[in-house]
Amino acid sequence: MTTVLVLNGPNLGRLGSREPDVYGAADLDALRAYLEASAPVGTAIDLRQTDDEAELIAWLHGAVDARTPVILNPAAFTHYSYGLRDAAALVTKAGVPLIEVHISNPHARETFRHTSVISGIATGVIAGFGFDSYRLALDVIVRRAAS
Ligand code: DQA
């Protein structure tokens, strides 16, 4: 069984009620169900959310140790957390894929969202496709694992 970690940063626990015009009306449980339905047999989805930067960093350390591929929506941490960037770099420098995803397209929004301190060390970035940003990232991870 291959596990894919799907990590979500601050305020994403409020999906469903948070700015539905931007993020849609579905919540994290719906995201989990969507990814589980999209994952091929033999791939498990471990979806987590935290508002705590230290917890998110600890989860990334765990991904390094277990060599678990990561789909990461860093949420607002995207734009300023060098601590999270350094932890994410540990993942990709270990040769483990980490794909940065966003539900919205940050480049089409406020200027402060145009900067990502994570993108430079991510394996790749997918943004602007709603929950499909995560599904596309899952597709890439599964394909790479199979090749
Ligand atoms: C987000 C975009 C970020 O700018 C924002 O802070 C979020 C969500 C997205 O998924 O579109 O919390 O990462």
Question: Short summary of the structure?
Answer:
The chain is α/β, with parallel strands linked by helices and 147 residues long. The protein has helices at residues 20-23, 28-38, 53-66, 82-93, 132-146, and strands at residues 2-8, 43-49, 70-73, 98-102, 124-127.
Q: Keyphrases for this structure?
A:
single chain, 5-stranded parallel sheet, 147 residues, 5 strands, binds 1,3,4-trihydroxy-5-OXO-cyclohexanecarboxylic acid, alpha/beta, Rossmann fold, 5 helices
CATH architecture: 3-Layer(aba) Sandwich
Poorly predicted sequence stretches spanning 5 or more consecutive residues: none
Share in helix: 25-40%
Count of domains? 1
- Tell me, what's the shape? globular
Text of the CATH class: Alpha Beta
Fourth-level CATH superfamily: Dehydroquinase, class II
Q: Give the DSSP E fraction (strand runs of 2 or more residues).
A: 15-25%
Strand line-up across the major sheet: 2-1-3-4-5
Q: Count of DSSP helices?
A: 5
What is Rg?
14 Å
Total strand segments: 5
Bound molecules: 1,3,4-trihydroxy-5-OXO-cyclohexanecarboxylic acid
Structural class: alpha/beta
Biggest sheet architecture: 5 strands, parallel
Classify the oligomer: single chain
Mean pLDDT: 97
The run of helices and strands is EHHEHEHEEH
Distance between the termini: 16 Å
Stated plainly, the CATH topology is called Rossmann fold
